[in-house]
Amino acid sequence: MVETRKVQVTGGSTYTVSIPKDWATENGVSAGSEVEFYPEGDSLFLTPRTEEERTEGTLDISNLEGDELTRAVMTMYVSGFDIIALENTRITNDQRRTIRKATQGLVGLEVLEETRDRVVIRDLLDSSELSIHNAVTRMRLIALSMLEDAIVALEENDDDIARDVIQRDDDVDRLWMVVSRIFRATLRTPKAAEELGLPREICFDYHSSARQMERIGDHATKIAHLTLTMEEPVPDDVVRALSELHEDAAAVIDDGMDALFTEDSVEASQLANKAREAVQEIDEHARAIDELLRDLDPARAQMLGLIVDSISRSADYGGNIAETALQKAAPTP
To answer: Which parts of the sequence belong to the SpoVT-AbrB domain (predicted)?
Structure first.
């Protein structure tokens, strides 16, 4: 329920306003308490001032194993807990191995304490030192290099390059978790956004774009897996067509990301519109390659068709980033 208050003047020059008593009681604010104000545009956020402390969460893992346990640890991390206590009557060896593996897959986490019935994980990174901009930039570099190397592995029938692409997907996933953790922190408290030095709207744009980059990394991994299953080299004309399709898709992604990071709204709009228009051409190019595959053995044609689809989808994700960039460049109401 919205409550209104009148602004009053005390001492001739100081503006004062009362705060709702119910809110103050629920949040432990009383006479003498200190509060913090965070300006954001024409809004002013007020929050109780608390001593700097790390948030701790406890999770009962008695019924969690394997992927479910891994996902639980990731969820606690993304939710913003600095200390994660995992408890069971007796933690099994399999659970310990899963917890260690999940910890290694997340940036900044380390096992702090292990007992028979409890494992405590702590985030060693200072959240104020994390940069969502740097994380998304790094995701861009890794995902695009993965996509390029996946096509090289296909062209050269090189299993080692394909395996390297698959391994690098873990790096993209780790960064995606970092971006998600930072973004959710900005939703919980205006202090997190202030420490980042970015408005929450831009954090949302970065988070949305990071999701697209994570999916591009997944499709590069898919292409690498398909390459490993191919026993014979791909025909030269198909290789050339796929390489050209990849170049066009990479250009869309680059233009979309450049538009996202560009401060000049006019330039950002031009780059974003260029990327969105190029997606339509890529769809036509992909259909032409599908026609080329009709002359091949059905099984090989199907596998190569999946690769065409992955490249096209990567371009679509670049188009989504461009759409986000257009929204970011639009005038603010």
So the answer is: 9-54
Residues 112 and 134 in one domain: no
- Answer whether residue 2 is part of any domain: no
Banded pLDDT at 136 (limits 50, 70, 90): very high
Least confident of 189-203, 228-242, 287-301: 189-203
My answer on whether 83 and 196 are in the same domain is no
**Position 1 in a domain:** no
At 91 the three-state DSSP class reads coil
- Could you tell me where the beta strands, DSSP code E, fall in the chain? 8-10, 14-16, 35-40, 43-48, 56-60, 83-87, 109-114, 118-123
Name the residue type at position 221: T
Token duo for residue 179: 């971006």
Count of domains forming the chain = 3
Domain encompassing residue 272:
130-329
What residues does 58 pair with on adjacent strands? Answer: 85
Neighbours of 170 (CB within 10 A): 13
